[in-house]
Structures are given as C-alpha cells and as structure tokens.
From TrEMBL:
<protein>
    <submittedName>
        <fullName>Uncharacterized protein</fullName>
    </submittedName>
</protein>
Length: 179
C-alpha cells in the first residue's frame, strides 16, 4: 500500500467532493430537463446574437470592413467584408434540448470572377456544431457536446476570429469555374 497520504486526498474529502459533484450534476440535469427550457434556450440564443452584433460593430470598425449580423431565429448570417458565416439554431422540441444544435457554418472565400465580380462557394467551408449546456449555473456552448465550455461572449469572439482570419487571407489558388 502506498505511503503518499500527504499527497493523496483523504477518503472523507474524496467522498465529500464526489457527493458534491453528484449533487451539482443532478441539479444541472434537472435544469436541462425543466419544462421552460425552450424559453431559456431562446434567451441564451438572444444573448449570443447580441454578443455577435456588439462584436460585429467593434471588428468592422477595427478591420475597416462592413460588418453585420442579419436574420432572425433560427437563422442569422454574420458578414465581415465579403466573407460570411451562418449561425443556425436547430431545436426540434420546444420543451427539451434533446437533439438541439447550434450550427456555425463558414462559407467559402471570395472568388474573383471575370470583370471584377465575386462569387462565394455554394458549400460551407466548414461547419461546427455546439450543444447548450449548464456549467456552474452559467449557460455555455460545447463543441459537439463535449468540447471546452464557451459562454456566448467567447463563442462570438471565436466566430469573429475565424471571420477575420478568412477576410484577410488571400483567395485560394487554382480555383477554376466554368460558365
């Protein structure tokens, strides 16, 4: 038997910690299953969109590019210059978060066409899905349900980091379109 008692957590402390974690998880699950969860989710979505709109103004000014957040529940389009991302809230049930997902889809680069026009790819460049979760009494987003928890403000920041990276990246080479 190891003699590292000073380093190891005492059995009583461990039991208290695990009981507290179990109580916290039970409270979290109870809140996630509450009958008003659909209304709560809509409030969290509204907070995310508000964060995106605030970030849009800040980033657009700093980047010297037109920036906007357009749309309404369940679909919004976030623009920075000629680059866009869609944010879509899919919740098939009004009283549950079962199968609910927030999809963030980055749409392709600005392709230069003859005569100076631009064209955007019809397929998303990438898609990330998030699930709504409750962590320490705060609503957070988790990528694919088990990623790092992101409050709405941090998710808005993440979305705009990607937009800025794509807005200031050169268009991919060797893109050919036939007309």
């Amino acid at each position: 038997m190891p003699k590292d008692h000073a380093v190891r957590e005492s059995v009583v402390a461990k039991a208290k910690r695990l009981a507290a974690e179990r109580r916290q998880e039970e409270a979290r699950l109870k809140r996630l299953r509450a009958p008003d969860i659909g209304a709560v989710a809509n409030e969290v979505i509204a907070a995310l969109i508000s964060s995106l709109r605030s970030k849009s103004e800040e980033v657009g000014t700093a980047a010297e590019l037109q920036s906007s957040v357009e749309g309404q529940n369940p679909l919004w389009v976030v623009h920075l210059g000629t680059i866009s991302t869609t944010v879509r809230w899919d919740n098939p049930y009004h009283n549950s978060l079962t199968d609910a997902k927030l999809s963030v889809m980055a749409w392709g680069f600005h392709y230069v066409l003859p005569h100076g026009g631009r064209m955007m790819r019809a397929d998303p460049a990438n898609e990330t899905r998030y699930e709504l979760d409750l962590l320490d009494e705060q609503w957070v987003w988790r990528e694919d349900g088990d990623g790092e928890p992101l409050p709405s403000e941090e998710l808005a920041e993440t979305i705009f980091h990607d937009l800025v990276d794509r807005a200031f990246s050169p268009p991919p080479q060797n893109q050919h379109f036939s007309f």
